[in-house]
């Protein structure tokens, strides 16, 4: 597709805004939609345009990106009243970056295929800041030919793009990735608090940890924010709680115990109850 193509975007939160930035920088026109009027205005300030509902967006866009909170919202946006499929002209392709339910994602892909609409679940490992720097990792599920057909759009966002199998594979990979990532953050936070109680210099210790077998990328992304008490949201506590709930739900279906994730959930619930749900997950 030519770079002057108009691409739709439903969901202009932290990640959605970063996706819009990358598209605009590469010459694409962006038409966005969000229930929050402040986000729509911010999108327009980026140089994009905004519409009131997904159906209006579908009229002018062959390809549409979704960046939403959960699968229930995705289904409403795609198949609900004023959804993408309610328009006279359905998009040719929907690329869904939402961390969603893999079973429902697979079923949606089948329904869309029957209507001639391509679908990819292209989940992202990485914060909005990392997406802004083209450092996110994209885990994509969908038909191999569909993936190849729309790879050009995914290439706008990162060089780290992996096709993992049929629809739903991206969502499954994101859950596994988020399990590991979330626990890395949790361990780092606990370790820094422990070190502080021991009277250690946290700046020096963080540098030591980065150069030791204990290293994880969480140290690069979240370590300084933890030390500084900088919890301005790049990715929110409540969003990760949603992911952990989904991880545990699938583990229960598989009768697989996840003891560390169960503890993680308790701590995230406590953080939300303390009023910290909208703060950064650092």
Would you write up a description of this structure?
Helix content is 52%, strand content 14%. The mean pLDDT is 94. It is of the alpha/beta class. Helix 9 (169-197) crosses helix 11 (217-228), helix 9 (169-197) crosses helix 12 (237-253) and helix 12 (237-253) runs antiparallel to helix 13 (259-273). Helix 5 links the parallel strand 5 (93-96) and strand 6 (118-125). An eight-stranded mixed β-sheet has the order 3-2-1-4-5-6-7-8, sandwiched between helices. The chain is built from 13 helices and eight strands.
Radius of gyration: 19 Å
**Major sheet: arrangement of strands:** 3-2-1-4-5-6-7-8
Give the low-pLDDT segments. Answer: none
Task: Write down the overall mean pLDDT.
Answer: 94
N-to-C order of helices and strands? EHEHEHEHEHEHEHHEHHHHH
Helix content range: 40-55%
Strand proportion: 5-15%
Distance between the termini: 39 Å
How many helical elements? Answer: 13
Biggest pleated sheet: 8 strands, mixed
Q: What is the approximate shape?
A: globular
Instruction: Give the helix/strand class.
Output: alpha/beta
Number of strands: 8
């Amino acid at each position: 597709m030519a770079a002057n193509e108009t691409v739709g975007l439903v969901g202009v939160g932290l990640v959605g805004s970063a996706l819009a930035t990358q598209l605009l920088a590469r010459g694409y026109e962006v038409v966005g939609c969000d229930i929050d009027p402040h986000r729509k205005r911010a999108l327009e300030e980026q140089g994009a345009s905004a519409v009131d509902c997904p159906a209006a967006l579908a009229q002018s866009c062959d390809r549409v990106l979704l960046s939403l909170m959960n699968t229930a919202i995705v289904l409403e946006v795609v198949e609900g009243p004023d959804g993408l499929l309610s328009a006279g002209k359905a998009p040719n392709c929907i690329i869904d970056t939402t961390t969603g339910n893999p079973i429902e994602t697979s079923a949606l892909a089948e329904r869309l295929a029957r209507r001639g609409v391509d679908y990819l679940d292209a989940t992202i490992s990485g914060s909005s800041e990392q997406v802004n720097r083209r450092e996110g990792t994209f885990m994509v599920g969908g038909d191999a030919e569909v993936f190849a057909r729309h790879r050009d759009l995914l290439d706008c966002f990162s060089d780290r793009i992996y096709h993992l199998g049929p629809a739903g594979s991206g969502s499954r990979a994101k859950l596994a990735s988020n399990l590991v990532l979330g626990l890395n953050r949790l361990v780092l936070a606990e370790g820094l608090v422990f070190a502080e109680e021991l009277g250690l210099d946290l700046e020096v210790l963080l540098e030591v940890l980065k150069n030791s077998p204990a290293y994880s990328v969480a140290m690069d992304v979240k370590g300084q924010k933890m030390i500084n008490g900088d919890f301005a949201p790049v990715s929110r506590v409540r969003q990760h709680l949603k992911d952990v709930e989904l991880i545990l739900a699938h583990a229960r279906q598989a009768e697989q115990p996840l003891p560390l994730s169960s503890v993680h959930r308790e701590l995230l619930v406590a953080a939300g109850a303390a009023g910290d749900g909208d703060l950064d997950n650092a």
